[in-house]
Amino acid sequence: MMQFMPGLRLSELFYQEAVQPLLTKHFPDLVHSAGRLDYGSDVLGFDTPQSMDHHWGPRVMLFLNDGAFSHHHDDIMAVMANELPYEIHGFPTHFVDPHIDGGKLRLIDSGPIEHGVVVTTISRFFGEYIGWDTTNDLGETDWLAFPPQHLRTIASGRVFDDGLGQLEDIRTTLCWYPHDVWLYLMANQWRRIDQEEPFMARCGDVGDELGSRIVAMRQVNELMRLCFLMERQYVPYNKWFGSAFARLDCAATLTPIFHAVFDAADWKSREQHLSVAYLKAIRMHNDLTITPPVEAEVTDFYSRPYLVPHTSRLVKSLLSAIQSSVIRALPQHTGSIGQFVDSTDVLESVEDMRKLMVIYEMVG
């Protein structure tokens, strides 16, 4: 059995001790960058020994300029297949069935090696991964088409070598949303909470306990997503949603409250716990000092005895704080693709996202 090593660290060692020496030997004048910014629990920093059963192992992305890519791609791939060591720090470098769910590591004693080296260009990678043509300036509305889960891997990944002098600058650019885009996304996240504020209590009031629990769970999910925005952290895909939330500053306070919401035996108790969570979120918003303070309170929903935070107040306050005419012209209650789409297949397809954004622009 192989002892576990965080996959991102293994990939860095793989580059430094195996890939880079071969590049120096066979392509001494080749200027390149290298790193891991793509898919994987290892790139997100959430991999464990269980991760080692598939789509895990020593991987490196090599970035070349366009001319070098056309000239050297095939030769580099051949050199890696024929001359890479069969293992690195006790881990095989050969992947069995790499095109089936990422493949699985297996030690071999003769080549060629099905390796984890990918040769690409900066424009090709970012175009395929988030749909951004890096030869063009990044516009404010471009951000709305970027799935947060991909932005998170770019932010949490690692550049091993930036010989091209571009990767780190791009990562810095993509580290967080422009200010007015951020305000717009938070306004829309509060709107998602506002849309269902009274439903948990209303369901419980008519004896629909299951419906009450489902709405409460939905509200907790939206509050958690709001917390990511307020702490300026991209949301990962669902498998690591809770794990990433646990790393937020607010998690120590909110996690036990959310558990109490889920464990509540009746809607009145559930309402009390959910109200505490709402008040905490409003105070977190006020601590950002990006709008005038909003009173942290829960009051009746019209004449009905359902306690709600009336978060439309925060929606209006955030939208009023936006200065960009481009962002102010957007549909007020739609947000980014990560807010109005939850299909995994769509969020992993740049082509599908582009089609949806065309419709989005037509609506706007």
Provide structural commentary.
- A four-stranded mixed β-sheet has the order 7-2-1-8, with helices on both faces. It has a two-stranded antiparallel ribbon with strand order 3-4. Strands 5-6 form a two-stranded antiparallel ribbon.
- It is built from 17 helices and ten strands.
- A hairpin with a 7-residue loop joins strand 5 and strand 6.
- Helix 11 (251-263) packs antiparallel against helix 12.
- The longest helix is centred in the middle third of the chain and has 22 residues, at 209-230.
- It folds into two domains: 7-173, no CATH class; 179-333.
- It is of the alpha+beta class and 364 residues long.
- The model has no long low-confidence stretch (mean pLDDT 95).
Strand order of the largest sheet: 7-2-1-8
The SSE order reads HEHEHEEEEEHHEHHHHHHHEEHHHHH
Largest sheet: 4 strands, mixed
Mean pLDDT: 95
Q: Between the first and last Cα atoms, what is the distance in angstroms?
A: 56 Å
Helix content: 40-55%
Rg estimate, integer Å? 24 Å
Total strands: the figure is: 10
Proportion of strand residues: 5-15%
Query: What's the tally of helices?
Result: 17
Total count of domains = 2
> What structural category characterises the helix and strand content?
alpha+beta
Please mark out the parts with pLDDT under 50 across 5 or more consecutive residues, or reply none: none
Categorize the overall geometry: elongated
